[in-house]
Fold this protein.
Amino acid sequence: MSEKVIVKNIIKIFGSKPKLALKKLQAGWSKEKILKHTGQTVGVNNISFSVTEGEFFVIMGLSGSGKSTLIRCLNLLTKPTSGEIIVDGENIVKYDKNQLRNFRQKKVAMVFQNFGLLTHRTVLANVEYGLEIRNVDKEERRKIAQAALESVGLKGWENKMPNELSGGMQQRVGLARALANDPDILLMDEPFSALDPLIRREMQLELLEIQSKLKKTIIFITHDINEAFRLGDRVVVMKDGEIVQQGTPEEILNHPSDGYIEDFVKSIDRTKVIQVKHIMQKPNALISLKDGVRMAIREMQENSISSVFVVDKNRVLEGIVTIDDCVEAVKNNHFSLKELLRHDYYQAHEDDYIENLLENATKSKYPIVVLDDDQRLLGIIVRTSILSGLLPNNNVNL
Amino acid sequence: MNTFPEFFQIDLGIYIEAFVNWLTLHFQGFFNILTTIIKWIVFNIQNIIGIIPWFLWILLIFLCGWKIKNWKSGLSYSLMIFLIGLLGLWNEMIFTLSIVITAVILSIIIGIPIGIYMSYHPRLETWIHPLLDGMQTMPSFVYLIPAMIFFGLGTVPAVFATIIYSTPPCIRLTNLAIKRVPKEMREAAYSFGSSRWQVLTKVELPQAMPTIMAGINQTTMMAMSMVVVSSMIGAKGLGENVLIAINRSDIAMGFNSGISIVFLAIIIDRMTQMISQKYDNI
């Protein structure tokens, strides 16, 4: 995959004499010293990262960490004081007025924390806005806008005014408006922070679904570490205008670079971050139907387990047999496994979060089986591995 | 009593006077053109208003009041204007109305762009604000003098003086309205690649409309309040009757024309207010 956005040494200084402060900053002055002596505020200090095409990239930080400034640099709503932002090989910081408008119209769209909807326009007219600016003709933009609204589940709300809608629905309008423009890059500035937790959760899932369908490059800002880890392919943690750590959620979770990140990670609900694939194990024993009951008993005894999964030659799961059933069958001279197969096990997908497994894990007599889309067995999860996965600093196989 | 030292005094007014004289001398042509334009506008508005017969006016006002509120207010407004006619001041009212309408139109044309420009240039604001304060608090008689010198007697200096007095609220509220457009809304518009003009016409002005309308309502009211003052330099209309009544100490005549001004003001105020409320539901 190619690098879609490369950010190189971005610095943003707020105030009337940014150039002066920039010099001082480059001379090694601290931000506090610069603020005290020149009155200039360093909003974003020397940030570099790159985002690959189709990636879900999350920038996380508390308020005042410079994350909103940073994302506004990416479509030049805020012009960085120094540094380069390279999108598709072009340095957008150098763009003139027309190039910039063209870039904003075609390549990038933004979703805002407080939605930024035009309250004097209907929902449909809001979604049409970007297309209207691009001079798409009326019929067509209506069609595109309607499709966009439908994709976020707002069909039938076209002619309402934005403030007649709930917060969640308003943000759907914001999302539809961004999607209607069909941008390569979606900038999302704390889009779900203003929503209540249930709606937020729902919106996160929907966003992931949209992302898997449309494969946009998403740069997403949040102050919520759970949200960051849940959504992000990669996460950047910011503090005081600087990057503290970047990496995949698992890397950050298991190898926090300093105390600041550690404090964050403590607050995180690991059940929402750790996925099935991180804790599943290779089954010690597997048998196939033709192996027969005696073979099954032997396998279970050797591995001291009370049940074993049965697969065919392609590892497609057939069922599970228990040792009790097998022993009973041998007593009655039944040697075919087929009749002993049970199907009351629980299954999971390797991308599931263990949060969703907990209930089944407590109910199930057997290990939870992990299957791929073709019903092939990838691994199993026993209860103890769920528990150990929840312990912090326990390097489960991430 | 302590007195301020005499040698320490200056006369600021003579410089203004010199400036006015200089303007009169060098810009007479410009003022003549202005005079012609304003005269033309007032004349045409007067004709348009005058062409509608009085009973149609009453009906029209009834219908307007009915449409924007209810039939009761329609009835009371039409009764008010009927009463002005009964008092024998119909023609005076038409004169007054045409001066007020001209002044308001010109105030809007001048005020809204200045208000917008100011909101884009915050530094300019620090200069314009005291100027606006001055325009509103300087006793209006004071600028009647140069107005008279520039434009002679009659309708035109009256319109000029009215504009000076009634433009500030329009500027102020337009400026305020544009500045109050939520930051994110503006950012959203820019993030889709809007030009400055598109942001202004598609986002800022529609958002600002209710407040701008409130400004226009205030401008109209201020213009109405200048009616009597401008009659001092020979503008015809209801104000002239008040002035005559003062000179003659004629209580009856004073009351008749005074109450007519009040009625006219109420009608105009309610009508413009309703228009601004229509924009309010966004």
